[in-house]
């Protein structure tokens, strides 16, 4: 069948699922209608809350550290001097566009690529039909579809008369909230401003939690010029939330226009983002932190004939996008991928990586971190600083306000999560972060000595 992949940059999961009363101001009628006939994954995660690493993982099905892409300023190496990966993640025969082209699909790409360069090229396996930029993107998609004759729906033993299509519509909004925060001109026009009294309320986890990671506070201070929210008070944060919701609504209108030209009876539609946005939670905007608002993404999979469902278990949505799309298309996925299809039912622990290389508080690689989500539990560890370990029960504490890593009652859970992350690090070859892990009590004798055989 035909497949339409819709991507949005920096679209937080809570803007679509709206789990809190404080999120009721988001308005997405077109995406809501799509979700009503889809499988909706409410606990979907990115492998890295930053554009280039996340998108590179998305098109290859491999973790950013395996690609050697741990920053928007790709330098060919992983964190802490780990081995370099391939320089062009979208160019291999097993990457997204090349794989679907080989499987018999006509592949076209419109909009933001950013894995690595801003716009897709023919070398990425797609026919580029519109460059980076939301203006004219929907029209370019409709024009490309209009040049095609409809795909026949053959009966048993009757071949189709045309190749199916795989079309990607990749929008920039609501990423332009970054320009709003910095009081810069907004590429697709401004959003209406409102008095603070008319803006949405602050999220319940607006205040930084007790025992919050010291490293994040330092990184936020160091990157003040990038974040643009230094000096924000409650009123400015509420207006930020209003602007972000307005950008989400503007995107939803574009998606509605796009879907108006799609035959949903014969087309699978997938909606996903590369990462979220802090949206004032923990006093944070943009991404890169391992907060839930930054690492959770919307993930909606509409397959004609498949009943609507809600999946509330953690899934590696962005890392597993390639095998998920293969599952939807009914084709084999490449071998050696780092995640399974989200539709497969495989619920392995989800791991998220991060690195603050672009504007680091520390010289060298800056702060790095890992988070592991397994069931209701989330364990995060940053590379340095007080309270660098974070343990949360997401069912009881979705806002991550109570760090259980500092409570002896949860020492056994903490050690179990340390063990899971160590096992994942060794199995996935994440050697660059091994020296930053907190080793579990179960670690093999001599493991610490082995890891620090070269001290730095």
The major β-sheet equals: 8 strands, mixed
Q: Mean of the pLDDT scores? A: 92
Domain tally: 1
- The geometry reads as globular
Q: Please state the structural category.
A: alpha/beta
Q: What is the CATH superfamily?
A: Alkaline Phosphatase, subunit A
**Count of DSSP H/I helices:** 14
Low-confidence regions: 75-84
How much helical structure, as a percent, in the residues?
Answer: 25-40%
List the helices and strands in order: EHHEEHHHEEHEHHHHEHEEEHEEEEHH
Output the strand order for the largest sheet: 5-4-6-1-7-9-2-10
User: Which fold does the CATH topology refer to?
Assistant: Alkaline Phosphatase, subunit A
Strand fraction equals: 15-25%
| Highest-level CATH class | Alpha Beta
Q: What is the architecture at the second tier of CATH?
A: 3-Layer(aba) Sandwich
Count all strands and give the number: 14
What Rg, in angstroms, do the CA atoms define? 22 Å
Distance between the termini: 52 Å
């Amino acid at each position: 069948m035909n497949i339409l992949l819709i991507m949005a940059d920096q679209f937080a999961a809570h803007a679509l699922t709206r789990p809190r009363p404080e999120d009721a101001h988001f308005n997405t009628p077109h995406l809501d209608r799509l979700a009503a006939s889809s499988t909706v994954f409410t606990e979907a995660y990115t492998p890295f809350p930053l554009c280039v690493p996340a998108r590179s993982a998305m098109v290859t099905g491999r973790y950013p550290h395996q690609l050697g892409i741990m920053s928007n300023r790709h330098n060919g190496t992983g964190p802490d001097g780990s081995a370099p990966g391939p320089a062009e993640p979208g160019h291999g025969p097993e990457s997204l566009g090349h794989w679907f082209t080989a499987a018999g699909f006509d592949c076209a790409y419109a909009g933001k690529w950013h894995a690595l360069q801003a716009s897709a090229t023919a070398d990425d396996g797609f026919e580029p039909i519109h460059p980076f930029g939301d203006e004219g993107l929907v029209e370019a998609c409709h024009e490309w579809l209009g040049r095609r004759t409809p795909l026949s729906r053959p009966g048993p033993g009757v071949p189709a008369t045309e190749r199916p299509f795989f079309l990607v519509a990749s929008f920039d909004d609501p990423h332009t909230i970054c320009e709003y925060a910095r009081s810069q001109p907004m590429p697709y026009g401004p959003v209406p401003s409102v008095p603070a009294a008319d803006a949405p309320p602050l999220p319940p986890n607006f205040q930084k939690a007790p025992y919050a990671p010291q490293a994040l506070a330092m990184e936020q201070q160091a990157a003040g010029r990038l974040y643009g929210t230094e000096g924000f008070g409650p009123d400015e944060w509420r207006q930020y939330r209003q602007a972000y919701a307005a950008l989400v609504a503007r995107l939803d209108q574009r998606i509605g226009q796009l879907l108006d030209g799609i035959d949903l009876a014969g087309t699978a539609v997938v909606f996903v983002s590369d990462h979220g946005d802090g949206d004032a939670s923990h006093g944070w905007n943009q991404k890169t932190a391992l907060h839930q608002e930054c690492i959770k993404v919307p993930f909606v999979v509409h397959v004609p004939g498949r009943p609507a469902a809600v999946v509330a278990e953690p899934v590696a949505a962005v890392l597993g996008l390639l095998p998920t799309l293969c599952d939807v298309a009914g084709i084999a996925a490449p071998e050696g991928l780092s995640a399974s299809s989200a539709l497969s039912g495989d619920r392995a622990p989800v791991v998220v990586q991060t690195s603050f290389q672009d504007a680091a508080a520390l010289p060298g690689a800056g702060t790095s971190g890992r988070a592991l989500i397994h069931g209701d539990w989330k364990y995060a560890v940053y590379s340095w600083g007080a309270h660098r370990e974070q343990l949360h029960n997401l069912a009881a504490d979705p806002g991550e306000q109570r760090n259980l890593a500092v409570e002896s009652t949860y020492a056994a859970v903490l050690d179990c999560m340390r063990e899971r992350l160590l096992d994942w690090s060794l199995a996935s070859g994440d050697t660059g972060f091994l020296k930053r892990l907190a080793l579990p009590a179960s670690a093999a004798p001599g493991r610490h000595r082995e890891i620090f055989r070269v001290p730095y």
